[in-house]
Amino acid sequence: MNRGLVLRLESLLQLRGACQQRALSCRKAWGTRWKPGQPVSSVLLLPQPWQRDTLLRAAFPHCRHLATKQDTKKKKKAPVLRGEVEIMPRMSIEELARAMGKDTEHIYEALLYTDVNLDSLEPHSILHEDLIKMIVQKSGMKYKSAKLKQEKERKNTDAVKRQVGNYPALLTPRPPIVTILGHVDHGKTTLLDSLRKTQVASMEAGGITQHIGAFLVHMPSGEKITFLDTPGHAAFSAMRARGTTVTDIVILVVAAEDGVMQQTIESIQHARNAGVPLILAINKCDKPEADPERVKKELLAHDVVCEEFGGDVQAVNISALKGENLMVLAEATVALAEMLELKADATGLVEGTVIESRKDRGKGPLTTAIIQRGTLRKGCVLVAGKTWAKVRFMFDENGKAVDAASPGIPVEIMGWKDVPSAGDEILEVESEQRAHEVVDWRIYAEQQEKMKKDEEVIEARQKEHRMEYEQRQRELAHLTWRQRKAALFKANKHLLFQRPTERREVDESTLSIIVKGDVDGSVEAILNILDSYDCEDECKLDIVHFGMGDISENDISLAETFNGVVYGFSVKANESVKKLADKKGIKIKLHNIIYKLVEDLKEELTSRLPPAVVETTVGEASVLDTFSVTVGKNKIPVAGCRVQKGLLDRRMKFKLIRSGDVIWKGSLSSLKHHKDDVQVIKTGMDCGLSLDKNLEFRIGDEIVCYEEKEVQQTTSWDPGF
Asked: How many domains does the chain have?
């Protein structure tokens, strides 16, 4: 190469514009498709390849995708087996090139066949899955999804129940666990109160049980019976179902004057699903309107057959309030328990079930539990759900500390690290280290299950998006690239004018709520009610947060963020929290009875609804004749009418009805009686009127005068009680 050529090359290195002109002249000479911003290594004509590459890299230092052949040789290309490329949903241009065993120039060339703006692409630019698949296919290869690096499979370290061995010598009699079920206000708590001689019913809000109570009753004969008092209210279906899973006998309480009700039927179904025998207690037999025989006959329709009708269900007529026949009911329960031969192993590791859980300000997380195997003592290490406890103290139903709890005995346990859910299985483990292993495994297993479900959802969405993309490509296949680009711009033009919201805008038609309850079961019951909300088209209901314990300042701050309302069930809010809520304008609604909380919630939903416009008819007239008058150069149709009902007031709104259809709404341009302009025409009077719109009248048309009033809408949500 001579000296003159070298000098010319040096001048080109200093002037990029000259380099681009060189490339453009080559494009004209060879017909190569090139424009600034695209790879130009294939169009520059210089004596030696190294000169061409040196010139390009010097002239375009910002174009990192330009490389010499020597550079390309130095880079190791990823081996591609049988033309298959492992792809991921999002890959950079460099990553895709390595996966395909190509250089980045190949990717840019493949992108020439798309609507992608190549000027904006860099080697680190991210490509999406659909584009990646298209590039691989255009390159004559096949693709497959890359498998994520799988975590080493963990060993299952969960705690499990002990196997039931055939050791009759270890089995000892235990108290029967009896659940009292029935409809709300049929006397279940009063019955239990009479049995254990305390005033539980008077302590319950409104006389309605709000959550499960577990009590041990000592009979005069020396037997012990563990009773579970479950709520009869419709909101507490999950609690009643949970009560039957740990019970041996169900006492079905039915009021003699009311008969079989909705929750009575549900209670029968719970007992049947659990395979638990029934004893029928017909309560309130002291009332004049009581009819026990009607109750027994109504229960026949639900396959509950009393002994007098040839069945196996004992029926006892009682009065819980006056204490009549309670001993007969207790004896029937003890007799049935003896027939069932209830025994348990009081040795070995403890097993039980969480009946209820709550947070206490002084004691921390507490659970009411029924022990089913083993004997619980202080210092035992327990696991339940995703938490564990080292038992510090135990209390009976009266709050008295106890040292041990044997099978069938209800006990309140103190020492939990967190609050377990009602219904969780309690298992004793050997040590705190073992408890950590069990809890870690359960959290891990839950995460894996969640990841599996998320992957299924992602795959389904990807499939849906892929089908939409392919459909769109088929629709645009017959267009040129310019027409395709214009069509895509037109379809997505509305997205260009959307500004990103800098803060969360709260819609007026959305009610955000925070729910706090005294125990886990109460919160569960409230959430179950809210799950039945089906009026999203009227007002959206957003549950921002829920939990146990008294209302705190954090709840108020959260409610302020979402413009929400705080609902508390059997909890308190101290004075500082109330003052903070007043200062920030946050409503705190405290309730002790669940149906009153729901009624309050419905009122709050109603207040969020926009007012509805209601039309009130003021008068009606019928068209008896039609004619027209000339005003200037225009002919105006006029209707001769007679008022049939009410009155016509020119200041109000009117509508024209023909054959049952409203064909016009608006105001009158004139209203005359004979030749006089009037404001009001009363019943039986004739008049002539014209509309603010040029419409032809027909004989028999109806003219209706009405006024519009705004009326507050009421939510149509029906929680079922």
From this structure: 5
